[in-house]
User: Fold this.
Amino acid sequence: MLKKTNTKFLFNYIYIFTVLFFIILPGSNLWAGDLKPYKGESKPPPLSLPDLSGTIRTLDSFKGKVVLINFWATWCPPCRIEMPSMWRLKNKFRDKPFEVLAVDMGEDKITITTFMPAKMERDFVVLMDMEGKALKDWKIFAFPTSFLIGKKGKIRYALYGGYEWDGPEPVKVVQMLLSEK
Assistant:
């Protein structure tokens, strides 16, 4: 029981922080700034979560691909707004070694599938972090939070806040990451 209470507290804390950060604070914006190179530890924390079919998926299984990891929730306004642009980015690089991992925080399969159109579900790997383990491991403090992982499995870019993922700058960054050996 204690574990469930702590997880619920953590999700509530992040919900409140996200609302304050993006909506209530004067001058705040639903959108993040520019996509910038990641300055933290380049080795990503482990990621091992069930997808919507219940199959456990790991980040390691995507080595050799450029991966956009997006931590989101259906109740998060900027997450909801940016999701279609991630789908368009995924479609733009459909024939390339590029994946989108959409890590939902604390919601059940029914909530997620009710929100996501079937076309997105087919194109994204949607992972469910029901217990908040990835949230803690990746030190997520606001939704959405996104990371671009290079083909060698290292974090190359990070972004906190919503973003138009199919705009010229992110497309250029993904193309650059895809061209690396």
Q: What stands out?
A: The helical segments are 2-24, 77-92, 109-115, 118-123, 133-137, 168-179. Residues 2-24 form the longest helix (23 residues). The chain has one domain: 2-179.
